[in-house]
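Hi support team,

I've been running sequence recovery on a batch of backbones for a student project. Most finish fine, but this one hangs at about 90% for roughly twenty minutes before it completes. I'm not sure whether the input is malformed or the queue is just slow. I've pasted the structure tokens below so you can try to reproduce it. Let me know if you need the job ID as well.

Thanks,
M.K.
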């Protein structure tokens, strides 16, 4: 509240008969402090509703059983009422839309069956498959190219075709994504059960997917590819033996690959998930 709006000298222009001395008027600083507290409380409540707050689990009092035990950094689930899985698109779209305004993310969120698509994508990645159907929206408009006709290294200029999708993913703060996931995890578990995992924990699917991707090497030079009818194939045997999703990750380019892996590792850390993949550093074969 501005100081000019506060009654610093009430009745200064009148001369009433002497009265007993009233108690001193509250200090303007007191009302400013009260207003600040109210503002902070209102902001905190708004952040809670938008699921952007990062809540930390209060540590229990030290006991013989808990003293010295490492505390989980996983955020606590906030008490948000969830819709049914079939009616979750608008709810989920609004929550994710708060975390990122990237155009590619907006386009992805415009599709239907968002939670089911996300669960299917993670399941397929964990199996080593490329989630081309559930993530068809992320398919770049241009095709991969090589330097040569029948064979040759990847034309590095074509790596840019994955820049938008990579930027969309990394535009989301991993800690905020972890809080959102914890809040809506029952929806993910329900969709995961539909894929043949009754009573399953979708955390396990996330770990499998991240381990699959982090196990892919990062070639130090553009990989050599062989042109086949309708597709390319790695000429290097170790790269050719990789799972399809790992080959696809390599073809996003080394910069995008590192950014994606770094984001996934940060997400796993925020969720306190025990990923075991060796990471994306290093080279493989002649690549």
């Amino acid at each position: 509240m501005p100081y000019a709006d506060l009654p610093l000298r009430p009745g200064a222009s009148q001369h009433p008969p002497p009265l007993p001395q009233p108690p001193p008027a509250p200090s303007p600083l007191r009302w400013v402090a009260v207003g600040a507290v109210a503002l902070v409380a209102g902001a905190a409540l708004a952040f809670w509703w938008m699921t952007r707050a990062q809540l930390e689990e209060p540590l229990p009092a030290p006991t013989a059983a808990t003293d010295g035990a490492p505390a989980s950094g996983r955020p606590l689930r906030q008490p948000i009422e969830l819709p049914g899985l079939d009616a979750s698109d608008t709810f989920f779209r609004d929550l994710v839309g708060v975390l990122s305004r990237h155009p590619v993310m907006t386009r992805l969120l415009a599709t239907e069956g968002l939670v089911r698509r996300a669960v299917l994508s993670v399941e397929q990645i964990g199996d080593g498959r490329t989630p081309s159907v559930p993530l068809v929206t992320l398919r770049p408009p241009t095709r991969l190219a090589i330097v040569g006709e029948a064979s040759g290294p990847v034309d590095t200029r074509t790596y840019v075709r994955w820049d938008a999708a990579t930027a969309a993913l990394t535009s989301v703060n991993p800690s905020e994504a972890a809080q959102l996931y914890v809040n809506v995890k029952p929806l993910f578990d329900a969709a995961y059960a539909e894929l043949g995992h009754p009573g399953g924990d979708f955390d396990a699917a996330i770990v499998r997917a991240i381990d699959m991707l982090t196990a892919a090497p990062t070639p130090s030079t553009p990989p050599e590819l062989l042109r086949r009818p309708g597709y390319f194939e790695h000429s290097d045997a170790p790269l050719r033996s990789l799972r399809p999703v790992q080959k696809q990750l390599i073809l996003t380019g080394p910069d995008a690959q590192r950014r994606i892996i770094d984001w996934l590792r940060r997400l796993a850390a925020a969720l306190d998930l025990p990923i075991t993949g060796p990471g994306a550093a290093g080279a493989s074969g002649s690549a």
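--
Follow-up from support: It reproduced on our side and the slowdown came from queue contention, not your input. The radius of gyration is 27 Å. No action needed from you.
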